[in-house]
Write the structure tokens for this entry.
Amino acid sequence: MIRKSIASLQSEASETGGSSLKRSLGPLEMTALGIGVIIGAGLFSLTGIAAANNAGPAVTLSFIIAAVGCAFSALCYAEFSSMVPVAGSAYTYAYATVGEFFAWIIGWDLVLEYSVGAATVSISWSQYLVRFLSKYNIHLPTQLVASPFEKITLADGSITNGWINLPAILIIIFITSIIIRGTKGSAIYTTIVVALKIGVVLVFIALGWNYINGDNYVPYVPANTGVFGEFGVSGIFRGAGVVFFVFIGFDIIATMAQEAKNPQRTMPIGIIGSLIICTLLFGLFSFVMTGLAHYTEFKNSAAPVAIAIEKTPYYWMSQVIILAIIIGYTSVILVDLLGQSRVFFSMSRDGLLPKLFSQVHPKFKTPYKGNMLLCVFISLFSGLVPINVVGEMTSIGTLLAFVLVCIGVIVLRKREPNLPRAFKTPWVPVVPILGIVTCLLMMFSLPLGTWIRLIVWLLIGLAVYFFYGKKNSKIRNQVAPDSD
């Protein structure tokens, strides 16, 4: 249960020199990073799933409920990140409040979430790229766009295995090269991508608005089928659980705190700003989509937005949406890789992981060795493992991080009430408790397979901690560690 003092964390935040990260991100870049990972392809798929299976046209309310639930945790993140502006996000906050052991658990699990997320998204990115190019009669070799464990049906009807998913590997390598050259360049790229994605969403809302059929909103809340979560009020809340995972990108902003120019101001703006902007866009987007087509038409559809577009004369928008999904996935991969490497950076600086993960490039001031090693690891998953094995981008680790951050705010308010806080979470402990309850409900709604994956990964992490991390922990080797 040994803890880092807030003073030591703030000392890390003020460090300069060859081993420190470069502070180059302002409020605009931070907000763009958050929007970049929140507005991914999930918006174009999860909206239809939640409408068809759970909430009907009231999926708009599901987005609002999910955003409110997410906001509880966001406010707690904003307080911590303004007070402890160092890389590592929930890992660092846990280290200061509940101790090294729990910090290791949450850091290790965040690494899994970011890795699996980046690999999964890169595979989907490859699939959408193939679909996009095929519209222009550009056909990539079939064996080079699928893993060796996937069956592929060729044009002549024969079935064969893939060799390697080359586009998925190339996008991981490309994004890693951007990240290594510096977070300022990464943020500029993300800002441009975010502008394009927001533009596509706004165009869809603007063009689709005039073709909304009011009859599609009747009934706005479909009657419950007798099964919990299938329409009615319970369906709205189940829909909120489905779309909740679209919002969680703001926590990755907290991993970048040590690269913020003025973290006390930048971090709260980036976290809360990205959440507010995305909530407004998602609400309008879902309202227009369910107004263009009846929610029952989205059943079993992987591209519900394409169905909605068919109700307008703008058929060309279908290809634009696919392009937006490709762009969206690209920025999600970038932010996932950024977040993961910064968690590793923090754990390495604390001695819990080998030093190479915290060695900073002399020119670019980024943890380039860790970036390159992670690139190899994730590329192997992207190119050789099918998407159903890599797993869907579930967020059990992120939700666990949210719970610990909310607990941490309560603990620190009690333990060190006089610490300066540039941003204070309102109505403590009510807001943190609501965040804890919301996140636990979301966690318990996840399937058993997700829990099994989490437990197996944590067991591996415990072995690494007890055989390496605990012996090499810097704080344990200090003469007078800060412990209870």
Summary: The longest strand covers residues 151-153. Residues 100-134 form the longest helix (35 residues).
